[in-house]
Design goal:
The complex is a heterodimer of chains A (148) and B (264).
Chain A lengths: L3 E2 L4 E2 L1 E6 L6 E6 L6 E6 L1 H9 L15 H6 L8 E3 L10 E2 L1 H8 L3 H17 L4 E2 L1 H11 L5
Parallel strand pairs in A: 7-8
Antiparallel strand pairs in A: 1-2, 3-4, 4-5
Chain B lengths: L18 H16 L5 E5 L7 H14 L4 E5 L7 H5 L6 E4 L2 E2 L2 E2 L5 E3 L21 H17 L8 E5 L5 H9 L6 E5 L3 H16 L4 E9 L7 H9 L3 E6 L4 H13 L2
Helix pairs in contact in B: 1-4, 2-8, 6-7
The chains are: A alpha+beta (148), B alpha/beta (264).
The structure holds adenosine-5'-diphosphate and magnesium ion.
Magnesium ion binds next to helix 2 of chain B.
Chain lengths: 148, 264
């Protein structure tokens, strides 16, 4: 979908995305000419439809994780369906605050590994040394990870 | 006065979402993964319970015994049976470097299936708003199929067999995801009802431009009466690859493997 500022006859540009956490999505678009901002608000069904296509409004910001949509969407997955191969880069892995660890522990085992990895990559890319729930919230919105 | 404004295709400025580019990147990932797969063959029938999965699995094992590099993608997301038929050991799937390793059968058949991922005895259920789930469920299943093609480390294969569910929806999705519609092998049982369902499926495949390698009549010589295999082969001018009895011998599977593998 695209947004057109009819008065200026200019295509509006994606500005930012918010995930309130209730299954809905908000994306703001700005007219590059007059600066007017409109927000697109999708209901949970529409949000899910976009997520089901494996695309992200505002652009894909994380490199694709293997079976990303399956792992994010399947509700009846085995907790031990996946193991990460041992020989992986560790090095400058960011720390997790106690609260962030608690929150991560509530994520079903089927997706936990992927969620952990996405937040860790985000923290590394943004020079964040410790992952806290606030960092997780910002990352979720910036990356468009509804439901993770 | 109606407003006069440009519409979707008139707007050509790059936009950050780039949804079309995202879809394009998804397709490229599939094409790259399958670049080392000599061919993808879809096993279909349009009808359930006729032995698609049974034939797919035994055919794959026979091709592997002949020395072929073979994979099976279980595209029956809601009724996965391939891991059991291939007797792959129960284990977690290993992730590394952006891919997931397939399970491997004792004969060396590489396989991936929702059956490896979902809890035993549970249906494939998705997180999401319960109301109007029909709107997104189909999209999610097509995406799951794409991920199983693109994200599994299939490696170089002589053939990747895709075991389809009943109906033709998944075939259509598969044909759209691949650079070309895949050749199909149709499975029927002898009865007129099966013949009817498989006829529709063969027409759907042909309308999509998919070549048909032939038809296999399964469960022949038993309680089922009819000659669906012969009729369909004649009607579509395709080979009747085999009339398979109940519990075919290894020899019979080898013979079909030669015919299907040989036509590569
Ligand atoms: N030729 C055969 N001999 C013995 N059992 C068979 C044969 N073909 C199919 N079956 C069995 O019939 C059942 C249905 O076959 P299946 O492959 O699951 O069908 P489909 O995949 O078409 O729904 C399975 O239990 C399968 O093992
Ligand atoms: Mg089946």
């Amino acid at each position: 979908m695209k947004f057109l500022c009819v008065e200026c006859d200019r295509q509006m540009a994606f500005e930012e995305r918010q995930l309130p956490g209730d299954g809905t999505l908000a994306a703001a678009f700005r007219c590059p000419q007059c600066g007017r901002v409109v927000a697109m608000l999708t209901n949970p069904m529409e949000t899910q439809l976009v997520a089901s296509l494996g695309v992200k409004i505002g652009g894909a910001t994380v490199s694709p994780q293997p079976l990303e949509t399956i792992r994010a969407a399947v509700a009846t997955g085995k907790d031990d369906a996946f193991v990460e191969d041992g020989k992986r880069e560790t090095g400058d892995a960011p720390a997790w605050s106690a609260e962030a660890q608690e929150r991560l522990a509530r994520v079903p085992g089927f997706v936990r590994g992927m969620v952990k990895r996405i937040y860790a990559d985000y923290a590394r890319d943004h020079g964040v040394a410790e992952i806290t729930p606030a960092v997780m919230d910002t990352a979720r919105s910036e990356l468009g990870l509804e439901g993770m | 006065m109606p407003l006069n404004f440009r519409t979707y295709h008139d707007l050509t400025e790059p936009d950050r979402s780039g949804l079309a580019e995202q879809i394009g990147a998804q397709r490229r990932r599939v094409a790259e993964r399958l670049a080392v797969v000599a061919r993808v063959v879809a096993v279909m029938s349009g009808k359930g319970g006729v032995g698609k999965s049974f034939v797919t699995a035994h055919l794959a094992r026979a091709l592997a015994r002949m020395g072929g590099a073979v994979g099976v993608l279980d595209a029956d997301l809601n009724g996965p049976t391939v891991p059991q038929l291939l007797r792959v050991p129960v284990a977690s799937c290993t992730l590394h470097d952006g891919v997931v390793e397939p399970a491997v059968s004792p004969e060396g058949v590489r396989c991936f299936s929702m059956g490896l991922l979902i809890e035993d005895g549970r249906p494939l259920a998705f997180r999401g708003p319960a109301a109007e789930s029909f709107v997104w469920r189909g999209a999610l299943e097509a995406t799951a199929l794409r991920e199983l093609l693109a994200d599994v480390a299939w490696g170089p294969l002589d053939v990747l067999l895709v075991d389809l569910p009943p109906g033709m929806q998944r075939f259509t999705e598969l044909a759209e995801l691949l650079p070309e519609p895949p050749p199909v092998v149709a499975i029927t049982i002898p009865t007129p009802e099966s013949e009817d369902a498989v006829r529709r499926a063969l027409h759907a495949a042909r309308d999509r431009g998919a070549p048909c390698l032939g038809v296999i009549e399964n469960m022949a010589g038993g309680p089922f009466v009819g000659d669906a295999g012969d009729t369909l082969a004649r009607e579509f001018a395709i080979p009747l690859l085999a009339r398979l009895p109940f519990h075919p011998s290894a020899h019979e599977w080898d013979r079909i493997a030669h015919r299907v593998g040989g036509s590569a």
